[in-house]
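User:
I study polymers; will you set down one protein's sequence and backbone structure tokens?

Assistant:
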Amino acid sequence: MHPATGHDRFLHRHLGTTGEDLATVLASVGATSLEGLAARVVPATLPVLDPQPQPESPDVETGGLSEDAAVSSLRSLAALNDPHTEMIGRGYHPALTPAVITRDVLSNPAWTTSYTPYQAEISQGRLEAQLLFQTVIADLTGLPVATTSLLDEATAVAEAVLLMARAHRGPDAPVLLDAGLHPQLIEVASARAQALGIAIEVLSTEAITADGGALTGAVLAHTTTRGLVQDLSGPAQAVRSRGGLVTVDADPLALTLLTEPGAVGADIAVGTAQRLGVPLFFGGPHPGFMSVTEALRRQLPGRVVGVSHDADGHEAYRLALQTREQHIRREKATSNICTAQALLAVVAAFYAVHHGPEGLTAIAEQVHHRAERLAAGARALGLELEHEDFFDTVSVRVPGSASSAVERAEELGYNLRLLDADHVGVSTNETTTDDDVDTVLTALAAVSPDAAEAVEPGSVSSSFPLPAHLVRTSSFLTHPSFHRYRSEAALVRYIRRLADRDLALDRTMIPLGSCTLKLNAAAQTALWLSPELAGIHPYAPATQTRGWRLLLGQLADRLAHLTGYDRCSLQPASGAQGELTGLLAVRGYLHATGQQGRDLVLVPASAHGTNAASAAGAGFSVTVVATAEDGSIDVAHLRALLAEHGERVAAIMLTYPSTHGVFEPQVTEVTSLVHEAGGQVYIDGANLNALTGLLRPGDLGGDVTHLNLHKTFAIPHGGGGPGVGPVVVKEHLAPYLPAGPSGSPEPEPGDPDHGFGGAPVMGARFGSAGVTPLSWTYLATLTDADLRQVTLTALAHAGYLSHALADSFPTLYTYRGHVAHECVLDLRPLTAATGVTAEDVAKRLIDYGFHAPTLSFPVAGTLMVEPTESEPLAELDRFVAAIRSIRAEIDEVARGEIALEESVLRRSPHTLAAVTVEQWERPYSRASAAFPLEGMETDKYFPPVSRIDNAWGDRHLMCTCPAPGAFEALGS
């Protein structure tokens, strides 16, 4: 295993500036070296790490490998896995990802490196793809409003429970969970409900009657975990008669053949779209889903794409119902969801486009046919079935020998599910063949292959038909988008056309403060889709997953080391879920040590909005700590709060460096004060890109921190997910981190979750494990010393922009004249003088070919810029030139040379159609609208729509693909 040296060092390709370019950047901030910059930027009172020498013999645990060596090492780990044919089911099924989607979406940086579509004008492609996903879910479930995706099926069920509790208007009443749900769904939902004091009862649908007390609602299984297809009309009516809402958990592929939830009275439908072309990924990332009735649309968690129009009256897409965003509603938010599974929702959407309704139905019929063949064969071999009404999962009775049958199957290369001592569950899927069925039958019946093959399959297709009264009769996926692109040429062009409407990192810097968008190296994705990694079931036996567990253990250990903590949980699938998980660990620790009275979390006014929402979701009350004039925490106010509420304080949630983009010198004083009061310290890891190799949150006094692998550790953002939000903790909190759901293999010493005993927060033991090889590879190529250089280069780039833009938009907060990794540009004086808003600047930047910085956060009327370490000096200078040019345009308004409403600023962004219209009647030239800087003509990006009317979209909410002519009928 050779170290990276000279030209093959990944560090040199990851950093945007080195050598003379770096010297230019440093000179602009008055430094001669990166270490000299650190001495200026970081308060001397903080426990800064000493610079580390490069290790003599780099390896996967210390980093420093070349890209080729890192990929080779990862391949060796993958080879330690033992892939079997997966027929476990339990909500996870092998699927065939069409090659065109693998190449043109999952392997395409235009899709993988785009950001959450908060700037809708440059996100029309990903918004349309996510609208397609919403349409698929709405059509299949028979409910009109769907989210863009949720983290997985288990979290979708949990969110449904919370939604029903929010919508319930009567006195507190229990929520019923169908005992037929997958066990992990019951466990995750029960834990979330318990934290909020929501009563849960688990019982079978047969036990749900109209008699009894009031209900908040019920979650019913469309098909049970043991495979039974249920008639839910009776239980649903019983729940409604007792005042409850009805949620149905359903398999989207089964819904092509079986009655949709909306037709049996469901208010909410949830599930996972994983089997619509998304790999198993050892448990995730997978697109969970939720759809609801019109009456519940404003209670939805997460994101919803809606249809509106732009300034020219053309149809345009945008995120709808944004008043529910966490940074506005904080602890009153409907959820703390930030990152979801946008990229995987796009895969599922294109899978539906690729196959169309006829193709999906044919796949479902094939899956059911294989299950019928299995059931008929089992019966012919003398075995009994637990039930005969099934879609894809057959429960075979093998009295007293279920374990032996499962072991025989494993020896033959197949994973089945041990339901209990007498029953084995077998789930067929899109990849199942007749030969697979024959082999499984030999294991179940303990007979020879010849005996299994001798089973006559002739009448199988009609042996176990779906119940006639439960067969679907309604149509779905009738929109033209699901019928136009069946040929590969058509689909390739459609995917390309949508990608071309967007701005992603493959085209331009995305200078978003608070959401690091940095280089995602191609080598990181070299193996993540390989069957040895992506083809493993999350409930596969431990003997088959040694490579995965070694990989995850190495990643967890490195993350804990880099952050100054003892243990790391990789289960949370997003930063916001990491926040929730960390706070639930704090809650578990407090309750275990008799400190239940500590029910208050302190959240600074400048904190990420998800912080307060996560604290509320973990069952805590929230009190805001004021912000001082310099943007730091108001220590005097903190002291007053601790004096008043000290015995109630469970924790404080800090972001460091602060959300205002500075290293606050008093952070250790703050952590000491909270510890002295008996509270825990939660340090939000969203800004770890400014710390890694330089400072460790655990050394600052942190007890728990969540990380964002899709930020600091270079997992692509995917248009709004996937993300991974690991939680790192000090030893005393480790026992309360989430264990795997029941049925997961028992952790072994050396496993990253060994000794954890908290309730699971995801349906799979390691959450979105499928994307962790990307961060593993990133860290395998970088030593601690390299990561320090990465961090300091990020600080240098932010300082460079802050100084270069001071004459245009001054930086609001600094420490001794310096910023950390991001800078908040203050436009408020200009807005007061001219009326030009931060939004005007954000939209005008699109005409210059840039994604906007973070708009009006953490301070209204500002832009927060984070250039990251990956951007070249030429790109930084291009951004500076754009901002200076926009400032000159603002000055024209200030001088009265042009009215604001008619200015290039207020009428931005400009589409190609707008600047090529025959009659140009605007008071500025076409060239200034479209080509404001020299040299833009050769590769100009034109947004597909002009400025979007968000308010109109909320008043005319449309969350599925509009039928041709439907938009015009609404009036534009």
The two ends are 63 Å apart (CA to CA). The chain is about 35% helix and 10% strand.
